[in-house]
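User
New here, help please:
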Amino acid sequence: MAHVYYEKDANPKQLAGKTIAIIGYGSQGHAHALNLRDSGHQVIIGLPPASASRAKASAQKLEVVEPGEAARRGDIIAVLIPDPVQPRVYAEAIAPHLGPGKTLLFAHGFNIHFKFISPPPEVDVIMVAPKSPGHRMRELFTEGIGVPALLAVERDASGQAEPNALAYAQGIGCLKAGVIRTTFKEETETDLFGEQAVLCGGVSALITAAFETLVDAGYQPEIAYFECLHELKLIVDLIYQGGIKYMRYSVSDTAEYGDYTRGPVVIDAHVRETMKRILADVQSGKFAQEWMEENAQGRKNFLALRARAADHLIEQVGVELRKMMAWNRPAEELTAAQASARR
C-alpha cells in the first residue's frame, strides 16, 4: 500500500527563515506562490522582464525579480515552468546559484528523471506534485480544502529533504487531503503513459474514431457529436465520483451490458500490446528525447499536428453545438485566458 502523509506529519517550522523562489507564474506557479504566502512563508517570484505574468504577480503583492536573482536568494527553488524550457532556464539562471543548503523542487519529474537537468551532488532535489490544475488548487485552498499530491525525494544531501518537502506540501494545502510518497521515476513514467494511453491520446483518438465511424455510416455529425463526445462528461463525472463500479450502477442496464461485452472488443489484445510499446518508449526515454528534440527544432511537426486536429469536422460541429448550451461557457472564450496562464 502507498505511504500517505497528512498534516500531522509536517512541521511548518522547517521553512522558517527560508525564502522560497517560485520560477514561473502560470497555472501551478501562481497557486503555489499564493498558497505558500498565505500560509506565512516568504515567497519571491522569478520571471524574465518580458513575461506577461509579471503584472499578475505584482498585482497580488508578490515580489518579482529575474529568475537568476530569485535562484540566488532562494533557499528552496521551485521550478514551475514548462518541461521543454526548464533545461535552458536551469542552465542560464539557476545552476550558477546552486550550492550546499539549496533545494530544487519540481512539480513533475520529467527533466530530473531523464537527466535533461543534473543538479550538483550537494543540492537537495525533491518533488511536490499536486494532482489538480493550479486554479482549482488555489480555489480549494481559499475554502480550507486541499488537493492530493505526490511527494518524492531524489536526493537528500542535507538530511532534511523529506521534512522540507512535507512542510512545502503543507504550505500549499495538499496535506489536508493527503500526499502519497512516490519516486521521480514512478511519477514521470506513469504520468506520461497515462496522458498518452488514456487521458489525452487514448480518449481523444477514441472519441474521434467513434465520431468518424458514425459520420462515415451516414449519421448526422451533430448526433455523432452528442453521442461520442458531449455525453462523455456524464460518464467521467460518475467515474470521478465513485469509480467505474459507480458509473455502471448509475447507467442503464443496457449500457452496462454493452460495457462488459463490447468494451473488451474495442480495447482488445492488440490495443494492450500497443499500450506496452507506448510504456516502453516512455521508460526508455525515447518519447522524452523525441519531445525535447521537437522543441529544439522549433515545434514544426507539433504545430502541424495541432493545426490539423483543430480543423477536424468534430471541432467545427462542436463550436456550433456549444452555442446551444447556455450553462456552458464556450471553450473559445477561455482560449486567450488559458494561453496567458501558460506563459
